[in-house]
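Hypothesis: this fold can be encoded by more than one sequence.
Test: take the structure tokens below, design a sequence, compare later.
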């Protein structure tokens, strides 16, 4: 599978998903990943870090699937995408604009992405504490 999926711990202590993409991402690859992060999946509800430096491209069917499944009233988790390939950066930025996502941000380096995710998780925790 072109995605290697695991968990890691953010500096704040929260568990997060790390998905490392390699090669060509197909519709089947996208479907398998989405099943793991959607409601009922083993990684549902975790902040998400996507490393795309090893990806060559994403098929149109995979882009369509990601776009369709991340639209609408679905609860969005914080997602940071790290990419250096111009093609992957254009693809991800296109999907973000298309879906008007405010919970996903593109980065050029992993440390920046982890720091951003950590900050979002800390802010969410502070809001929950203040609202309790």
């Amino acid at each position: 599978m072109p995605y290697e999926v695991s968990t890691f711990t953010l500096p704040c202590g929260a568990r997060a998903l790390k998905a490392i993409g390699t090669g060509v991402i197909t519709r089947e690859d996208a479907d398998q990943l989405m099943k793991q992060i959607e409601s009922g999946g083993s990684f549902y509800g975790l902040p998400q870090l996507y490393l795309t430096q090893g990806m060559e491209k994403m098929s149109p069917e995979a882009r369509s699937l990601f776009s369709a499944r991340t639209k609408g009233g679905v609860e969005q988790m914080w997602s940071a995408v790290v990419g250096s390939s111009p093609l992957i950066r254009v693809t991800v930025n296109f999907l973000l604009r298309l879906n008007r996502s405010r919970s996903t941000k593109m980065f050029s380096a992993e440390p920046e992405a982890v720091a951003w995710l950590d900050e979002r998780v800390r802010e969410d925790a502070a809001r929950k504490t203040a609202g309790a």
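Residues 26 and 59 are 5 Å apart (CA to CA). Helices lie at 27-37, 60-69, 86-99, 110-131.
Hypothesis status: open.
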